[in-house]
Amino acid sequence: MDIKILFLILVPLATAFLIPFIDLINAKLRRFFVLLGILLESYLIISIIINNFQSLKKGDFFLQYYLGGWQPPIGISLAMDGLSLLFAVITALSLFLIVIYSIGYIGHHEGKYYVLYFLITAASMGVVLTADIFNIYVFIEMLTITSGALIGFKRSQEASAAAIKYLIYNVLAGLLFFLGVLLIYFNLGTLNMADISRNFASLKSGIQLFISAIFLTAILIKMGIFPFLFWLPKSYDTAPSPVTAVLSGVLSKVYLYIFIRIFWTVIGFETLVSLNLDILLLNLALVSSFLGHLFALQSNNIKRLLGYSSIGHIGMILAVIMLNTDAGFYGGLLHIISHMFMKAGLFVACGYLLQYTRSHAYRDFKGVGIRNRSVFIAFILLLLSMIGMPPLLGFASKWYVLMAFLESGSYFGAFIVIFGSLTAVIYYLRYIAKGFEEVKLTEADLKEEIFSRPLLSVLYREKIVSFITYAYTAIIVGFGLGFRFFDLPLRMSIKSVMDVEKYIELVLGG
Amino acid sequence: MAVIWQQFLASFQFDSFFPLLAAVGVILTLMTALAAWNYIRENKFWYYALTVVYLLSTLVVVLTRDWFFFLFAWEMVTLATTFMLAWSDWKLVRQYFVIQFSGSSILLFGALAANAFGYTEIGVIDSVPLQFLLIMGIGMKSGLFLFHFWLPPIHSEAPAPVSAILSGWVVKLGYIFLLKIIPMETGNTFLFLLGLAMIVYAGWQALRSADLKIMLAYSTVSQLGFIALAIGTGGQYAFYGAVLHIIAHGFAKTTLFISSGIWQKEYGTRIIYDFKDAVSRRPLTSAATILSFASLAAVVFTAGYNSKYLIKSAQTPGLLTAAVFFLLGLLSFLYAGRVLYWIFIKDQDYSTFFADLKQGFNHYQIYTQDVLALLIGMLGIIIVGFWPEMPGEVLSSLVEKDFHLLTGLRDTLIYLGISAYLFYNHSGFKVEARGDLSLENYLQLFLNFLYGLSRKSVKFDTEKIFETFFYNAIFNASKRVHDFVYQDFTIQLLWIPIFMTLLLLWQQIYSYF
C-alpha cells in the first residue's frame, strides 16, 4: 500500500479541476499554479524512486494501492512495477518540459488549454499505473477526447477537420477496445489484469482469437500502424506545437505501453504465437515503418514529415518488440525513450522556428536557419539524432535495435532500420539546406506576405521556448554519451515484462 | 573501452613486408611535411594536425589485421586527406569526399562478405569471387582501371604537398591491402589484366599531356599498373617486385610532386613548354627531377630499375614476355623522357650557362625544408637503387639475385636512342594543354551522352542535379505510392473491418502457405 501512486493520478486531475477556479481569482496566478501542479508530480515520482532505491537495485520493485481497500479480484487496484515506473518517469519528464514550453508558447485561451493538458497528464499516468483493464479503457477515452479537443485548438478549418477525423478513428478504436473488455468480462467475470491473465488460457480458442483481434485492431489504430496511418500526420500538422509534442512524444508511447501490457501480461505472447499472429504483426509493423519513411519523402510540410517519420519509428519499435527477445525489448524500450525526447524536441523546435512563417510548407522554411541560428543548430542536432549519428542518443538506440534484429535473424527488420536512416538523410537534409538559404524578397512576395498574414504571431515568452529546445538537445547529447545510464531501468522493466507469473503473484497475493 | 584498446593492440602484425612499408610511409610523410612548411601559408596548425592524423591512421591501415580497425583507419586517412584538399579548393573536398565514400561502401560490403565467409582476420583469401569483390572495393580508392577517372583531376588540382601525399602513399594503401589478401602462389589473373590496361592507357595519356601535374597524375596510374600487374602475377619475386615498386614509386613520385610545387612557384605555370633555363635557376630541383624521372623510366642504378626487373623476371620467360615488357618499358621511358626533353633540352640555351649559374637568377627563394625534402627523396631512390635488399630479413634473398645490370644498361641505351629519334622527328610530341580535365566536365559529358541518346545535346547544371532531377524522381515516386495507398477518408475507414476480418481468418490463410 503506497498512497503516492494514487496521488500521481490525483494531483494532475485536481490541478485540471482547480484551474477554472484559480482563473476566477486571478488569471496571472494560473501559470504558477500549473507549475506547482507539475512540480508536485515530479516530487512524487522522485520520492518514489528515492524511497525504493534499494528494491530497485535488487530488482524486486513493486508498489500497489487498493482503491477503497478492496482486494484485487473484486476491487480496483493500482500497481507499479519496473515497466510502469520507467514509463511513468519518462512520461512525467516529457510532460514537465512541455508544460514549461506551453507557458511560453500558448498566448490565448490558456485556461482551457491547461485543463485539457492536465487531463492528458492524469490519463496517461492512469493508463501506466492501473492494474484494471476497464480503467485502461476509461483513461484511453479520456486521452482521446482531450487530445481531440487540443488538436482542434486553433479552430481553423483544417484543424477542425483533422480533429474530427482523429476523433472518428480514435472513438471507433475505443469502441472496439470496450467491446474487447466486455467480452473478457462476460467470459471470465473479472476485470483485474492479473486475474484475466491467470484464466485466459482456459478460454476456447475461437474466443481467444476474437478478443486478441479486437484488441489488436483497436491498439493498432491508436498507434497508427499501416492500414490506419493517415489520421496521424494530419492531426500532427494542425495542432499547436506543444500539443504535437505531447501527441508524438507521450501518447504514442503510452499506447505502446498498453500494447506491451495487454499482449504480454494480459493475453500472453504464447497466445499470439499459437494463433500465428506474431509473424503477421512483425511484418505488418515493418511494412508500416517502410511506408512511413517512404511517405515522408513526398511530404512538403515539415510537421507532416515528422509525423510520417513517427510512423516509421513506431513501426520499427513495434517490430523489434514483437521479436519477444531480451535484446529486442532492450532496443525497443531504449528507442521508445530516445524517440520520445527526439520527436518532442523536434516539434518544440519547430514551434519556435515556424513562428513567423506563413505555413509549415517547405518553401516557407527558407531562411529560417539564418534568422534563428542557435535554435536551428539545436534542431539540426535533433535531426542528426533521428538519422542516427554516433555520439547522440538516436544512434545508441538504433544500434541496439539493429543488433536485436540481426541476433534473431530478421534481415527484413535490419534492412528497415538501415533504410530508415538513409531515407531520413534525404528528407532531412533538404530542409536543413532550405533553412540556410537566403531570402530575397521581391515586390510580389512582399505583397503576398502582407495580405496573407492577418497578424504577426509573436511568442508569449520567447526565452522559455528556446530554452526548452536547448534542454531537449542537451538531453539527447548527454544521454547519447551516457546511454549506459538506462541500463538498470531497462533491465528492470524487461524483467517485469518477461516474468508474467511474478506480476500475477504480486498483484493478487500482495 | 579497455577491451577495444587491447583488441586494437593485439591486431597489429609485425611480420612480412609490412613493417618495412610502414617505415617508408613515415619517411614519405616526413618529406611532405617538410615541403609543406613553406608551401602552406594559412592555418598551418590545422594542416599539421591533419598530417598527424593521417600518419597514425596509415600506420594502422598498413599494420593491422582486424577488419574493423582497418576500415576505420582507412576512413580516417580519407577524411584527413579530404580536408587537406581544402587548402586548394572546397569544390575538390566535396568531390573527393563523395568519390572516396562511394568506394568505401563497396569495400565495406566486400569486407562484410569476407567476414561472413569466415575470414575473420585480414589474411590470404582463397575464394576468387571474394578476391574480385575486394579488388573492386579498393578500385575506387586506389585508381584501378576505369575507376581511375577521378585521379588525374584531383591529384593535379591539389596543393603540391597534398598531391605528393595522395599520389605517393594514399593510393598505395590499396595495393598493400592486396598484398595481404591475394595468395602469393597463384596471384589473380583479373588483376594482372587490369594492371596491363592501366600501364598502357595511362601511359598513353601521360604522353599526351602538356601540364606537368596532370602528366604526373597519369604516370601515377601507369606505375600503379605495374604494381597491380606484379600482384596479379603471383610468385615470390613478383611480390618482392611489387613491394619494391611501391617503395621506389613512392620516393620518386613524392619527390616529383614536391619539385612540381617548386617549379610552379618559380615559373608561375605548370605547362612544361614554358620552363626555360631550368638548371641554372634551380640546380638542385633539376637534379631531383632528373633522378626521379630516371627512376620512373627504369634507368639502371635507380630504384625503379630494380623493381621493374623483379616484376619482369617473375613472368613466364619467352619471346612474347620479353617483347611486351620491352614495349611497356619504352612507354614509361617515353613519357618520362619527354618531360625532361622539354624542360632541359628543347629550345634551351646553354651558351651562358656558368654565368647564369653564378648570377643565380630566380623567382623563388628556396628554403632549407624544401632542400631537405628533395635530398631525402633522392637519397631514397639511390639507396633502393644500389641496396634493394634494404634493412630487415624480408627481402634478404635479393642479395643473391642477379639484376643483370648490363642488359639493363643496354636496354636503357636502346630506349634512349629510340626516344631521341622520336622526339627530334615529332617535335617532342607537342600537344595543346587540356582545359576540360575536371570532374564536373566528366559528369557533364556523361549526362550529355545519356541525354543525347534520345535528344539534342542540352546543358545540364551539375550543381542543381540533386535538387531538381534526383530529388524530384524520389519525390514523385513516393508521391505515387502515397496516392495509391491513400484514397479517401471513407475508404480509409473501410480498412478497419477488412483488417479485423483478416485477423480472424488469418489461421485459415496461414494454413494455405
UniProtKB/TrEMBL annotation, chain A:
Principal subcellular localisation of the protein: membrane
GO molecular function, one term: NADH dehydrogenase (ubiquinone) activity
The keyword Amino-acid biosynthesis is assigned to this record: no
UniProt-listed GO biological process terms: ATP synthesis coupled electron transport
Keyword Cell membrane assigned: yes
Gene Ontology CC terms: plasma membrane
InterPro entries xref list: CPA3_Na-H_Antiporter_D, NADH_UbQ_OxRdtase, ND/Mrp_TM
Its membrane topology: Multi-pass membrane protein
Subcellular location: Cell membrane; Membrane
Transmembrane feature ranges: 6-25, 32-54, 74-101, 113-130, 136-154, 166-186, 206-232, 244-267, 279-298, 305-323, 329-354, 375-397, 409-429, 464-486
Keywords in alphabetical order: Cell membrane, Membrane, Transmembrane, Transmembrane helix
Domain of life: Bacteria
Domain NADH:quinone oxidoreductase/Mrp antiporter transmembrane per the UniProt entry, residue ranges: 132-421
Family under the similarity heading: Belongs to the CPA3 antiporters (TC 2.A.63) subunit D family.
Annotated protein name in UniProt: Multicomponent Na+:H+ antiporter subunit D
Organism (species): Halanaerobium saccharolyticum
UniProtKB/TrEMBL annotation, chain B:
UniProt KW keywords: Cell membrane, Membrane, Oxidoreductase, Transmembrane, Transmembrane helix
Domain NADH:quinone oxidoreductase/Mrp antiporter transmembrane: 65-314
GO cellular component annotations of the record: plasma membrane
Main location: membrane
Domain of life: Bacteria
Coiled-coil residue windows: none
Membrane topology: Multi-pass membrane protein
PANTHER family: HYDROGENASE-4 COMPONENT F, NADH-UBIQUINONE_PLASTOQUINONE
Annotated protein name in UniProt: NADH-quinone oxidoreductase subunit M
Organism name: Halanaerobium saccharolyticum
Lineage, highest ranks first: Bacteria, Bacillati, Bacillota, Clostridia, Halanaerobiales
